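Entry for the shared binder. Reason: the reviewer on the internal report wants the predicted structure included alongside the sequence.
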Amino acid sequence: MSRLLVHVEGQTEESFVNEVLAPHLSHHGYYSVSARIVGNPRARRGGIRAWPEVKREIAGHLRNDSGCLATTMIDYYGMPQSGSGAWPGRAEAQTRPAAKRAEFVEQAMLADIGEELGARFVPFVVMHEFEALLFSDCRTFAESIGKPTLGKALGTIRRQFASPEEINDSPDGAPSKRIIAIMPGYRKPLFGVIAASEIGLERIRQECRHFDTWLSKLEEPCIRDIPVRRIE
């Protein structure tokens, strides 16, 4: 059995991991599943951090805890693409087909972490951000936060795309921006986790194939049973 540490960028993802993913993965051989906000977790602020900072945290945890597996839950939307804080593969991913962009960044992250630590690292990039997952069931989403009349408007957005994961990352078209446009009082950390809990992982996995691929990897016995040793 292994411990899984999920590096996230904000409180919404932190709550989702601790309240929704952890109970599920506890039935797949993990004795501990927890989230850690990258950067300064005590500040309780969301927002993407520079890749070198995140890489340093991930590598440090893997080096210091030989029984730990690490993963990420970071939004593709907003990842720095240039400068010293750029995330591996993020700029180049824009030239790839939409369905391959997250995977391209993940592979670049894995390569940058390195082979020795990479055996216990399962990178995951959310397309395009966490709120896209909530479009997996628009009716349940709206009802779960006490706004049932907004289900139709959410459904109209959803039907414009083949998958919730394709709802785009433009400044005005990102999933969260679309939600706030029709629901000005939307509170991300609270409403997002309530909605995800009501929608359920099964429904999200049916609609969001990239998310399903990630979760399937974490469920595989071969991931948890990798022989590990402390790296000096």
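Summary line for the report: The radius of gyration is 17 Å.
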